[in-house]
Amino acid sequence: QVQLRESGGGLVQAGGSLRLSCAASGSLFRITSLGWYRQAPGKERELVARFTMSDDTMYADSVKGRFIISRGNAENTVYLQMNSLKPEDTAIYYCNAYYFWNDYWGQGSQVTVSS
Q1: Span 74-103, mean pLDDT?
Q2: Which residue from 16, 18, 78, 17 is spatially nearest to 8, judged by alpha carbons?
Q3: Distance between CA atoms of residues 113 and 74, nearest Å
Q4: Which residue has the higher pLDDT, 59 or 28?
Q5: Once rounded to an integer, what is the mean pLDDT over residues 13-41?
Q6: Which residues contact 15 (CB under 8 A, 6 or more apart)?
Q7: Which residues partner with 76 through β-bridges?
Q8: Cβ-based burial of 108 (10 A; exposed 0-12, middle 13-18, buried ≥19)
Q9: 48 CB burial (10 A radius; 0-12, 13-18, 19+)
Q10: Residues with Cβ < 8 Å from 106, sequence gap 6 or more?
């Protein structure tokens, strides 16, 4: 059973930066497909950024050029560096792992951007 532990998030003014971290445990092998999603109040959960099964990166159009997804030195860790934050980035951010045909989710981290 894969478990995801997130950290980071918080309150920041528009134009500021935050970094989210996610560490996955419980897998026997390296998890290639790791990423971040977010859900704003009243909206559906949406992709923010992720590493694909082929280890490529993909980003939502709304965050391209501002957010950077990266892997940590420790296996099965992933970061989301969020720069030039906007009020519309306010949401709960979830770490996701796709491993052996199953989706696993972190507990969620609140990111609030004030104008």
Answers
A1: 95
A2: 18
A3: 29
A4: 59
A5: 94
A6: 84, 85
A7: none
A8: middle
A9: buried
A10: 4, 5, 6, 22, 94, 95, 96
